[in-house]
Amino acid sequence: MLTGQLLDRRYLIGQRLGQHDDSELYAATHVLVHKPVIVRALTSAANVKRFQDEARALTARRTDRIGLCDFGLFAPHALPAMVFEVADDVTIDELLTYLREQPRTPETT
Predict the structure, then answer these.
(1) What is the pLDDT of residues 25-70, one digit of tens each?
(2) Where on the phi/psi map is residue 15: left (φ > 0), alpha (ψ -120 to 50), or beta?
(3) What is the SS3 assignment for 10-36?
(4) What is the C-alpha to C-alpha distance for residues 85 and 38, in angstroms, rounded to an integer?
(5) pLDDT digits (tens, 9 = 90+) for 76-98
(6) Distance between CA atoms of residues 47 and 52, nearest Å
(7) Angle value at C-alpha 55, between 26 and 48, nearest 5 degrees
(8) CATH number of the 6-103 domain
């Protein structure tokens, strides 16, 4: 569980919001700009390539409500994670729908 941890000296992890595939979703704050974000952290190192391919596909799916704003292996654990900017009123169900509707490429199936 990541709650309370600081990823990459930028993202302070808050409450766990749910799960999607082999990742967990957390409310977080970008501490340098005091902006709320959602962090999706991979829970299994076996799927890093697929997770990276999924992040690439999500860059093209930015909406006015949800968009991928960062991806990487975040310190201190080299944790693969995606960071999303979301509108203030986005629900966890809306985010999960957004993630499920992502087009799958041959690399992500």
Answers:
(1) 999 999 999 999 999 999 877 788 889 998 988 888 878 899 999 9
(2) beta
(3) CEEEEEEEEEECCEEEEEEEECCCCEE
(4) 7
(5) 888 899 999 999 999 989 988 88
(6) 9
(7) 85
(8) 3.30.200.20
Listed by start position, the domains of the chain span 6-103
Please enumerate in sequence order all residues whose Cβ is within 8 A of that of 98, keeping only pairs 6 or more positions apart, or say none. Answer: 61, 63, 66
Cβ–Cβ under 8 Å, residues 18 and 64: no
**Location of structure tokens 């979703």:** 25
CB-based contact 74:26 (threshold 8 Å): no
What are the residues whose beta carbons fall under 8 Å from the beta carbon of 73, sequence distance 6 or more? Answer: 79, 80
pTM of the complete model? 0.87
